[in-house]
Amino acid sequence: MVSPAGTPPRETDRGNEPRPDTTPAVLKFPDRFLWGVATAPTQVEGHVANEWTDFVARDGGTCRIACDSYHRYPEDIEWMTRLGVNACRMGIEWSRLQSSAYAPLNPLELARYCDLLDRLKAADIVPMVVLHHFSNPPWISSSGGWTNPATVPVFVDYATKLVTALRDRVRIWNTFNEPDTYASCTYLLGEFPPFYKWRLASFRSVIRHMAEAHGKICGVIRKSGSGLGPVEVGFSKNWTFFQTFHPASPWDHAIAAISHALFNRFVLHSFLGGNRKEPSTFLGLNYYGRVRFSHFRPLVPVGGLTREALARMGVICDDMFERHPTGMELAVGQLNRQYRLPLYVTEHGSASTDEAFRERDLKENLAALHRAIGGGAEVRGFFYWSLLDNFEWQFGYAKKFGLVAVDFKDEKLPRTMKALGQVYRQVCLENAIQSP
Ligand code: BGC
Which residues are known to be catalytic? Predict the structure, then answer.
């Protein structure tokens, strides 16, 4: 056994009696910590008209109905209450609200989001609202999306109108979700519409334009303020550790170093380097784990290897990526020290039908987060990905991230609490975890 500090247990002076484990049995989180769940419009709402509408995922699924949260949001909020969360990270779908550049916001769609926010308030659930989560209106996609510099002022206009309309309902804003994932899946890996591959210049221009829009929107939000109290605004960075499986492989080292430079360093620098950091009040971290390369191949289930084969190599994965709970402590600690911004873990979760595995994963990651906080990192909240089983982009409905299950075979889309939902409920209500 290794203590949290990484030192091996010692024996007492009085003989061979093992020293009692001093790790507290209950790990308390800071007062007023936000415990939430996260979702994204395209993945849960259904009935969207964006670049995903005609997309058919690898399992044959589409996002056309998804979880039908567009109609069932009152029920979803009841599930949040059952989970005991005090916060939720939700997106607002741009394509619902504007029909063309600089157009006024659609009043009916705005009213629906207002109703959702009012119901959250009545349930004592604090919203963190995401402005962009991998989707755009069709008129943006057809004019070059985020590679087009004209998208920046158009999005800033939209955000300004939205922030002004919702200033008395929203205090915490999240501008962009994972610009790194979005730009790489659209322009490097050919996984997201418009499915381009290896367009490095486009990748870089998407990141630069999003970073520019982020800076401007932060300014708008800070100026507008919120009737609910001091505003907070930041973007969410996916942090993946890129490493080698065989320590001596120079090629794998090169791929890992390039991935880190592109997806982590370049993106963080574009959003937070130098005085670009000024307008943000927090940094959102989406942390799932790591990717190790072996002979150019990423050792992850989404790379085509089975979980069982990977486990035989000592690579422990959910249905998507390798788990690396100690990395949560490192990433949180390092990012907090480097940027001196409070953090929210805006996403962490695992996809599996093995609930015992997911429980271990959650507890190990929360214990690592707790160590980071104990080491001085300012962390204000944690949002589990995800409230519901949902439409997982290119993988469709095959990946089960929900705390609450959705039966997609039944057209009524019934929801049921999962075992992990009960575990998370206890964490939220006690603001603590039992040491794993
Ligand atoms: C994204 C989510 C996605 C989750 C699981 C994150 O990168 O923000 O939209 O569903 O990971 O893959």
Answer: 178
